[in-house]
């Protein structure tokens, strides 16, 4: 009889813990379900598994042109980053210090683009994040490629405790790209989407988890209950982002963040 590897058992246990947390927290119909989902994911998955040289904050990302992202559920940043606190755990993070932007949904709803849904709001948030300027890029050196893999913008992650089937989610992603935007909206999609209850993860073909795809399309990384669970691709991708950041020297253009903004002359 084949036994599962220890790390598989570990992430199976974490997934069970997250599902139990979600089930228990959903019993209370309080207003801060979103905050509860965010804190549960930070405590059960991120903080207990990722390197300690990163921090998890809630707040906004700002670039050198003073453009902002709007509020982000979880900003993953280096522990050596500047800390610009507003109040409590809310802060402003310079775009050049952001390793990842993470949105967490208790239940990922989908609908046509003309209607409201959690998927639509997440994609619109990620579009703002990825349009922000940054001087430092996530650069990963793969064994399969001689040239480094350079991310043109901030990596984004969408995490849902519950949500649609992988086929339904992929259909809505394709529909948004094909029918709503005149440009290639795929470049604004999140790099990783994980739906914990349905146990699947969608990972972009960018080289950090699978070989790069010339069309920058999505591939599925998903398995049944008795195989690899959805948290493992997410864990590997996040670790590689952190590895790539820690292996580089960063000279942040601080003065660009304090330069005078252009004024409109009437």
Mean pLDDT: 83
Sheet-strand content, in percent, reads 15-25%
Question: Domains counted in the coordinates: how many?
Answer: 1
What's the tally of helices?
Answer: 6
Notes on the protein architecture:
The protein has 266 residues and is α/β, with parallel strands linked by helices. The chain has one domain (6-249). Helix content is 32%, strand content 24%. The chain contains 6 helices and 11 strands. It has helices at 6-25, 33-49, 118-131, 166-179, 231-246, 254-258; strands at 54-62, 68-78, 84-87, 90-94, 98-107, 139-140, 149-150, 156-162, 192-195, 200-204, 218-222. The strands form 2 sheets. Strands 3-4-1-2-5-8-9-10-11 form a 9-stranded mixed beta sheet. Helix 1 runs antiparallel to helix 2 (33-49). It is globular and about 60 Å long. It starts with 5 loop residues before the first helix and ends in an 8-residue tail after the last helix. The model has no long low-confidence stretch (mean pLDDT 83).
